[in-house]
Amino acid sequence: MRRCSERWHQRLQLASGLRRWLLLGGYGAVAWPAQHGGGPSGGGGAECWMGALTFETCCFPEPEGNAFCWDQYYNAARCCVRDPPVAESRSGEQAPAVSAHVGLASAPQEAPAGGCEMDLYQSFKAGAARWYNQKATRLAMFHELTTVLSHFDTVFDSCPSAALTALLLKLESIYFDDDQRFYDLLDVYLKHEHRAVSEGKLLQSHHQNGWPLLGGVNRVLELRALGRRPKPVGRSRATVDLVVCFCAERLVWLRGFHKLPWREEDRSWAMRKYVSLKIYHKCPASTDQERDVERRRLLKDWSEYFESVVVRYVDDAVRADDCSAYLQYIVDYYGDLPEFTIFLHADAPEHIPSLELLTDTAFAASRHFLPEETGFAHLSHNHVLNGCEGRVKCEAKELDGYEFPTLWKQVFGSSIAPSLAAGELAAYCCVQFLVRNDRIRLRPLDFYARALAYLGSTPESYYRLFPVGKVVRMGDALGRTPCQLSMYIWHAMFGEPLRLPRRQHDVNLPLFMKVVNIEVEALGEEIDGNDPIIDQMVHTSFEQQSGPHSTWARVGSLFEGSTDI
Description:
Number of helices: 26
Distance between the termini: 32 Å
Helix content: 40-55%
Number of strands: 10
Strand content: 5-15%
Oligomer: single chain
Largest sheet: 6 strands, mixed
Strand order of the largest sheet: 5-4-3-6-10-7
Radius of gyration: 27 Å
């Protein structure tokens, strides 16, 4: 718990692959385990079929079958082979007989995609309705969304309501984007809606049967209108501050706020107009002259990228990393905070592998597109559910014994503290987060000044790790133990519930913040029991992450062509 697990990077790679599987449609039409929507019907294995996507609807006509069913992973050659027929042995045990290819001569020659009654569409309708009515999401809906979008024309011919609902969800995921991209997609939606109505394929009965088209349109228009809210009069400072806790890391990834190498959007104009960079330097040189040289270098490197750049040196009694950097910023700017502050480590891509979550959030926040209820959002990848239920050995029990409750009580001035071992706290590892100014001001300036003194400008937080005397242990200093423990308290400091939910289940966050940086554990939480399809999904995630378009390859592209910044 004091440091992220050594297995973290492996889990990160795996979950990043799962994220791409969910978003890019790694299984195409095959979206969920067979037992969650109909079983296999004849061949290919259970992983090939889901709901109305069955052997009969997908494997005819010969030889390619129904193109609606296939993607780069699943195809007729893989799936349209009968499972071995089962024969009964003399002992009564079942034994497989010789496999046989499908006899296509007697098969139907057409395999229509079906209408809105298909299980896939009905499941998608239910998931979209839950989102619009309750702001509740399931990972199944995310994948059903990409399945529909990946086969949009076929779906539109089969069930226009499903295709239109998918377009509305896609619009909602880019509602904050520049005018051309947003209105081009809105134009696609309107033309297809008019076509469906004029052809008699979109009827009042579809609305009555639960397709959430009206709710989806209203949601998209309400979100788009956020960008037209009146701006504060007479306020000239940036809308967003990027606060980077820096030592000696390469910062070239900051260029991704202008343009990510794998995306077309160029957002440099917004960064230069609305976003300020604040570098809080935690490894300063010992002389004023050396510090001045370093400051001028950083200003030269980044001043052309942002509205303004500030380099601030932070000297700790015992190095405290992000704790004293973040708290020093709040003390410095408490009376002049921007609308949003994004707090980051200088190695942020290691903690936010799908960097578009960060860059999209900054772009939306800089132009006032985040809804009022979005006051705080963790941006890191690794959600930590503390708790020792069922485990004899558990580090949380040791921390509960003295270290963590002492830190909590000292920072919050409390006589009690939540229990890590009891699972009373949940947060994200490795603090990278966005917070609105009114959330910071929930607590007075004195609160942050006292916390800064405790965690940074005095060694008190290190002394308090040991119940007797005033000792700074070498292991604690090297591991920045007080600051590592503090990763579980930032969200509570800014008014969030103690058990912070995963982003996918946080009703205060917009859709675009939910569909990236998804952990593989999130999938396990939504499916009960052991499921062989999960193993296949994990395997596919690893396969996708081994190629040139993997998340790590994308992150690596941020650092290409530059060695000096």
